User: Fold these one by one.
Assistant:
Number 1:
Amino acid sequence: MNDWKEIITADPEVMVGKPVIAGTRLTVEFIVERLADGWTEDELLQNYPGLTREQVHACLAYAAEMLSEVQMSSSRRRSRRSLRATIR
């Protein structure tokens, strides 16, 4: 699942702008936290009957992409600091 953009939305009027599964109040954060707590995908689907596997996978794809962007941004900042230190 690479195209989470059709499933994950963010609206300042819904859950304070946190990314959510479109049409729900289930945040990506909530889904990822449940999985991190040891819930299985099947347990999520049983406890939230409107939730689909595709939506769970979209949450994970969104989280992975956001982490990748944060890591790349952090790496660029370190490179700029290193470059500035070299120039001095």
Number 2:
Amino acid sequence: MEKANWHIYQLLTKRSSLLQKFLNERYPTRKTPAHMWFGVSVENEQVLSRVTHLQKTNASIRFLSIGLDHGVGHFRPLIITRQRHLLVYRGTAMSHACLCQVF
């Protein structure tokens, strides 16, 4: 993925602590390449630690995948940062998915 910079890679995981460890060991002094996006799934409040793990990575582009079925109101303070990242809202039907920029 690092060498194929003409593609954009989106890596989505539920194993956020492993993602944090891997990225920060691989990129200890710099951000990841901008064509590699890293995100976590957030289904409910019990897994909000995934957001914290993602925030602590050296990823250039971070994104969250949050189910519309569960609402997103209580996530708002956690996902809005000074940096520009992406937020994916997903519903039961994939046809209702959309991509939004979060500032």
Number 3:
Amino acid sequence: MVLFDGTRLIRQDRWDALLADGLSAEELHSRSVFPVHPSFRVIAIGQEPSGKAGGVPWLTAEVATYFRFHEVPAPRPACALWMCAFVGSEDLRFYIVCKLEIVRCKAHDT
């Protein structure tokens, strides 16, 4: 994964292969290359512009090839509360429920 500033995040096995090839961690860091934990994941939510908001759809066929994604319906409020039971922070639970409610309301507007 290449970040906006040029930093490269690579899988641990690729990092280990570069070290085995003779590069040092300092050399890789100076080149803005860093390993990521094997459990590292990026989870993002997004909603295409539609309805009253209008706008140009951003999830084109070309952009979709960059990601593995699953389209899921907005959860019912009871389901959202159940999911949040597994989140440690009460502030984070509140934030998640608020965001889910926004998504649910926008889905009804279209």
Number 4:
Amino acid sequence: MTQKKVDFLLFKAILELMKAKKHLTNEGLIEIISIKASINKGLTTLLYNNFTSVVPIIKPKVNLVIINQINLIDFVVLQMLKVVFLLIFVLIEKIIIFNFMFWK
């Protein structure tokens, strides 16, 4: 499994939590932020400063894979989705900060 695939699966877990409305609870929000802290470059400065006690989850190990046609297709699709994911992460961050402002 590649690093991008692991990050994609973690991102998918965040979407599943949001689908289950877990982002509306304090525990669910902390869980989402813990997952986000493990994806790509981790938390943004804004999230890190507001959620200093959050511990990133442990990511699954990444195995080096020999590139074959299927892996190449996965790679290309994941590259194309990267921009979409980044935009969604910005939206998630804004939702988290918006919710956090009302809890203070």
